[in-house]
Amino acid sequence: APWQALHGAPLMELSGDQDFQLFLQRNLEFTRKIRGDVAALQRVVCDTFQLCKEDELQLVRQDLDITHVPLEQCHKRTFQAETCFSQIRAGLRVYQGSLATIQALLPMHAGLVETLQLDMANLSSNIQQQMEDLGLATVTYPSENQDPVPTFSTQFHQQVSGFFILANFQRFLETAYRALRHLASL
């Protein structure tokens, strides 16, 4: 079957595919929108709790279990669609769960958090569909079963956790965006 030849193929071979290019363009816009929503939540955390500078919070961070999802497969010279897209999907799932902390921290902005969660689920679904269309291996995650919101020893720890969740998520999105943009330019 021709799609088996694409399994693990370098993206140079995929870059000329018009459907793939359309997927990239649409999801670049989607990723840009998600980044904007995360930035808006970061501004709210900064304005509400005066938590604006990461370097000032590093000591507190050491006491907290903060999610950080690397995208090292999206940086490598041997970049392959399957591994990068799989890491993006896994990261979106992790951060989607982490947003429960943000929703608890910023109840007045629950609508924005819910929109962000929906957008993240849609982006993950788009990536999964594209991977299936290309014949790449995908992971099907179980249906949504919300993890409980973590408990924090102090309200300040919850606020700092929210700050770092958003900061880490923003970096994750920037890397995912750069990977998609690079693919679109090939």
From TrEMBL:
Q: Where in the cell is it found?
A: Secreted
- Which InterPro entries does the UniProt record give? 4_helix_cytokine-like_core, GCSF/MGF, IL-6/GCSF/MGF, IL6/GCSF/MGF_CS
GO-annotated cellular components = extracellular region
Q: Which GO terms describe its biological process?
A: immune response; positive regulation of myeloid cell differentiation
User: Principal place where this protein is found?
Assistant: secreted
Molecular function via GO? cytokine activity; granulocyte colony-stimulating factor receptor binding; growth factor activity
Q: From the Swiss-Prot or TrEMBL record, give the protein name.
A: MGF factor
What's the encoding gene here? Mgf
